[in-house]
Amino acid sequence: MKHRRARRQASQPNERFSPTSELRAPSPECQVPSSEFLKRCELPLRPWLLAAMTALFVARPLVPSEGVAWLGDGQPFCMLWLLAALGTTLAAIKAGGLPRGFGWLELLVGLFIVLHSLAALRGASIGNSRPAINMLWEGMAMAVSFLLVRQLVRTARESRALVVVMIALAAVLSAYGLYQVFVGMPADRADYARDPEGVLRAAGQWYPRGSQERAAFENRLNSSEPLATFALTNSLGGYLATWLVISLGIALRLGSTGLTHSKRLFSRVPIAAILALVSSCLLLTKSRSAYVACAVGVVAILAAALPGRAARYWKPMLGGLVLMVAIAGLAFTAGGLDSQIVTEAGKSLGYRLQYWQSTTAMIGDRPLLGVGPGNFQDFYTRYKLPAASEEIREPHNWIFEIAATAGLPALVAFCLVIGVACSTLMRAKSPVAEAMPALPVSDWSVFGGAGLGFVVALIAGPIAGLPLGFEKLAGGLLVGGAAVLALRSWVHDGAMSPSLPTIGMAVLLVHLLAAGGIMYPAVAGSFWLLLGLGLNLAQPPRPLPGKRASVVACVVCAAIAVSQYLTGYAPVLRSQGALMEAENSAKDPLLQEQALMLAAEADRFAAEPWHSLAALKLRIWREHQGERALEQFGRASAQFLTLKPHSSSAFRSVGNDWRQVFEKTHASKHAEAAVAHLSRAVDLYPNHASVRADLALALADARREEASRREAAKALELDAATPHADKRLPDDLREEMATIVAFDSPGSR
User: Fold this and answer.
1) 5, 227, 443, 507: which is deepest, by most CB within 10 A?
2) How far is CA 449 from CA 54, 253, 274, in A?
């Protein structure tokens, strides 16, 4: 009798995250599959594929991703994800089937990606093509990453290993962020104080003294907020908040796993250090949305872990509270935190309400497919309110972001993904298989893949414009390796419930309600990883047997990979390489022109080569006054605007170029060209005082006095209405507008 009871207990999971579930028998779908079944599901070379997948998850946050739309620096990663998927389907053909079939959730993810891709194709046809195509492949890569987690992560131990790797990465990013705050940024400020002109020129951002651009650069330089490898502190805050809450969930459950007393003690001390490190960096980001999301996550963790067990956890809870108060006090003392976090919260929320109001109008005009991923900023200026602060690239809210860029049907599909996933994960009260003896456990593949991810980041960093350098990445490896070693005992002997990834996803989504960036891979990668891990813990593997399905999947992956290579990877990298060559050939106009033409030919969707070519031809015309150079400038500018048909800044730039031409030629056709382009710029950005002022000057050049007075008056009205200094007219331009309004004849100025 005892032997039968022992065998029954051995067949059940070791640990359940929710205490109430310990009183319930696991549902039939949570039973451990048979050995023969598991062997049929195993893929050849799975440990190697698992290592490659882990490397990509690790490398992406180590390389900046905010330029994925307009720069295309994420296209190499998209290609690597698709190659990993192709390798997995080839292995499935050899194995005779995929380890996991496709259920409702996979179909919903597929529906969302199809709608997102259709919106991207539509956006490429009506707007800026290159960003839309880049984001099409970014969305495809995110879906592939989710599907690979579903296919390649087979045991609960591997799931725990992946979670530990991402926690270790959060520790690495936190250590780097603290290094920036206390070492790197003070050194940069000291260098700028010694030689401001040299620092600006070295950064390629030289601006004259007193200019708004120089003031903005100095404000960024004087900021004490860590960025780590992200371009925005909000992005870093969202990543840290997600994995901080998951770390807390692990810390609170260490005492109830199968760990020995010595292992629990050995794990709790370093995880407390990890919590302190990550929370310190999170506090310094001053990301209010991350603070709120973290608080929501902590409440959810405590609600899941504490009922009936408060006596067991009061000491770690009290210790954590004391630690957080101490960290916050040190941050205030050191100047990393200030009262503006609270006092400016209302203003920050007010800005977001303005963004969302404008975005709502944008969605109303294009509800089905949106404006296209990557095209939000170009379209946003048409709807921007006069008092709004900046020309945002996304609306700082994932709901508005998806609806505006991919359409309302895509938003519904994504919400269905979240709803079905949460329903599935919350119903699963215990992991399906804590031990699968028929499968080799590949946690060392996960840890090896994490190390490989640092190598990938070292190679990809310079391509993306952020060469971290060997020293920083080596230091990151040491910090991350220490974190992994500290939590190895939990990986081997601990337990994780599907509830924990669910809470992690909720933290990230709450943060993105006020931060945005759901389609940026370094931010959204955690969502798709946690979604896949949670479902793997909640559902037993149901294979898709037969080579036919695997062959179809392989053909689809190959077709998608070839398409991405032809429209994303190859043209972007070739064009960017040619642009770098053109920059290096700036002293030789002929070589520079050849390089720019190569860049334009390499990527027919890229606008930047034509913009640079137009600038080159205008410079040549100024120096030599050749009619041919002016004609070439006109053709290059027209092609540039064809590729950016909804960009107010593009039309403004070309319009002001024609004004410069008019100042030398005094030809009416050049004045009219300036008026035409600047009028389009005003149509696309009607509430910008400086654009209106430029049009007023162009109309004055064209001797259209009445229209010039109207635009000058509107410019002064917008100048008075904006509360933002960077949107105000410069003093000399304001005086010029006042002169136009005051006098009957602007031409007499």
Assistant:
1) 507
2) 5, 27, 21
Per-residue pLDDT band for 298 (boundaries 50, 70, 90) equals confident
Tokens 């994800």 map to which residue?
81
d(CA 474, CA 462): 16
Q: For the whole prediction, is pTM greater than 0.85? A: yes
- How far, in Å, CA of 593 to CA of 521, rounded? 35
Asked if 165 and 58 count as a contact pair (C-beta separation under 8 A), the reply is yes
Q: Tell me the two tokens of residue 701.
A: 């050049």
Structure tokens at 628: 């041919």
Asked whether the beta carbons of 152 and 49 are under 8 A apart, the reply is yes
Q: Where are the domains of the chain?
A: 569-748
Class of domain 569-748: mainly alpha
| Range with the largest mean pLDDT of 36-40, 201-205, 420-424 | 420-424
Q: What number is the average pLDDT over the span 655-665?
A: 94
- From 51, 66, 114, select the one nearest 521 (Cα to Cα): 66
Alpha carbon of 431 to those of 7, 12, 72, 286: distances in Å? 18, 9, 39, 36
CB count in 10 Å sphere of residue 81 = 29
3-class DSSP assignment, residue 544: strand
pLDDT tens per residue, range 455-484: 888 887 666 555 566 677 778 888 888 888
Distance separating alpha carbons of residues 301 and 229, to the nearest angstrom: 28
Chain-centroid distance, C-alpha 57: 13
- Residues 593, 584 contacting (CB under 8 angstroms): no
> What are the tens digits of pLDDT across the range 415-457?
999 999 988 887 776 665 444 444 555 788 999 999 999 888 8
